Amino acid sequence: MSKKKLKVEICMGSSCFSRGNKLILPILQTMVNNNEVNAELVLTGSLCSENCSKGPVLFVNDKMYDRVHPDSVKDLLLHLADGAGNE
Question: Could you tell me the mean pLDDT of each successive run of 10 residues in the chain, 87 residues long?
Answer without folding.
Answer: 85 93 93 88 91 93 95 93 64
